[in-house]
Amino acid sequence: MTDINALKTEITSEIEAARTPAALDDVRVTVLGKKGRITALMKTLGGMDPEERKTVGAALNVLKDEIAELIKSQEKALKKQALDERLATETLDVTLSTRPERSGKIHPISQTMEELVGIFGAMGFQVAEGPDIEDDWHNFTALNFPPGHPAREMQDTFFLPEDLSEEGERAKKLLRTHTSAVQIRHMQEHEPPYKIVCFGRTYRSDYDMTHTPMFHQMEGLYIDKNVTMAHLKGCLTDFVRSYFKLDDLPVRFRPSFFPFVEPGAEVDIGYIKKPDGGIKLGKAPDGEEQKWMEILGAGMVHPNVLKNCGVDPDEYQGFAFGMGIERLTMLKYGIPDLRTFFECDTRWLAHYGFDPLDRPNNAMR
Ligand code: PHE
Fold first, then answer.
1. What is the distance in A from the centroid of ligand 1 to the CA of 180?
2. FRET label pair with 242: which of 83, 121, 123, 316, CA 20 to 30 Å apart?
3. 364 falls in which pLDDT band (50, 70, 90)?
4. DSSP conformation class of 302
């Protein structure tokens, strides 16, 4: 018994001397651990006669509990002491300026689409939508593409595996190659007149500085009883001048071919080459060469397209146009490589992106 009391005094002073959680834990292991002193004493109980075992065993159990209790309270005391020390030494300077916060940016594509919505919205166009996964009929046939047209080839268009549960060309699924398919869906589902714009992803099998397999287009369609080529020219001239914020931007309409329009045109805008090799949109000063670049496709909707959508071409006519949104964005904001739009590099976005609080159509929300 005296041994046990001596042991208790000894351990108690060891516990009190432990000034850190690690030191306290060391004491705990040497006392209560598998090879600890109390544990070793417990093991000697087996060799004692029953009377002795009873008294010593009980005393050892009491000792064990007392020591565990002591360790616990010492642990608490150490924690409190550590906290008190921190509270006494650490201070919080509330006058310091806050850490710089990184805020998100609007992607230039989203910015441009909003600008386009603003411009065409002001002209009375409404926004329509259509699916990215189209069928051959909406993407090609209804738009007057003849059966063997090269755009229908595998090397240009992403076709999906055929669904044999559906019949014929309508069942042939693909990723839309242009937003013109949305014109078709809109005309099928609504009664004329139509005055819509549509934005969305389009897909073609292409990849280089100026082509990515996925890109964005905007489509416009205006059909009524007396819409003419003059309206087309006025609308698109106003649009490019307003988008590029250049009132005298030269605009040129060049005859071109798309199966779904007749006549068809490509629209060019004027620019000049700067001495450093860059370009500047606008009218060439006297003596300098006026250069042109193509910016969009347009034309009077082909009577066959109207017929395919159940619209009488003797009663209704109008124009359609389509353009690449990346190209418009690159030109306006001086972004040189198309591929960077989709590399998800936040440094790029921090540089070219737009402030979320400064949106083009905020006033309209
Ligand atoms: N769909 C054409 C393209 O992708 C653009 C276009 C749309 C041309 C409407 C004329 C009329 O190139």
1. 6
2. 316
3. very low
4. P
Residues 191, 64 share a domain: no
Segment 171-203, tens digit of pLDDT: 689 999 999 999 999 999 999 999 999 999 999
Residues 231, 336: one domain? yes
Query: For residue 135, what are its two tokens?
Result: 């069928």
Same domain, 185 and 74: no
What CATH number does the domain containing 187 carry? 3.30.930.10
Cα gap 216→239, rounded to integer Å? 18
Counting from 1 in the atom list of ligand 1, the atom nearest the Cα of 221 is 9
What pLDDT shows up at residue 155? 74
Same domain, 143 and 10: no
Q: Give the E-state strand segments of the chain in sequence order.
A: 126-128, 133-135, 173-175, 194-203, 214-224, 251-256, 261-273, 279-281, 291-301, 317-324
Give the tens place of pLDDT for each residue, 275-297. 888 899 999 999 999 999 999 99
DSSP-derived 3-state class of residue 353: coil
pLDDT for 24 equals 92
Concatenate the DSSP letters of all residues of 136-185 into one string: HHHHTGGGT--TT-GGGSTTTS-BPPP-TTS-TGGG-EEE-SSTHHHHHH
Closest residue CA from atom 6 of ligand 1: 322
CA–centroid distance, 203 to ligand 1, in Å, is: 14
CA-nearest residue, atom 4 of ligand 1:
178
**Ligand 1 centroid from CA 61, angstroms:** 90
Say what the pTM is: 0.72
Note the residue count of the chain. Answer: 365
Give dist(CA 315, CA 313) in Å, integer.
5
Range of the domain at 301: 109-352
Structural domains counted in the chain: 2
| Ligand 1 mean position, distance from CA 216 (Å) | 12
- What is the whole-number distance in angstroms between the Cα of residue 165 and the centre of ligand 1? 32
Cβ pair 341, 326 in contact under 8 A: yes
Q: In degrees rounded to 5, what are phi and psi of residue 295? A: -125, -25
What are the tokens at 363? 């006033």
Does the CB atom of residue 157 touch ligand 1 within 6 A?
no
User: How high is the pLDDT of residue 152?
Assistant: 81
181 Cβ inside 6 Å of ligand 1: no
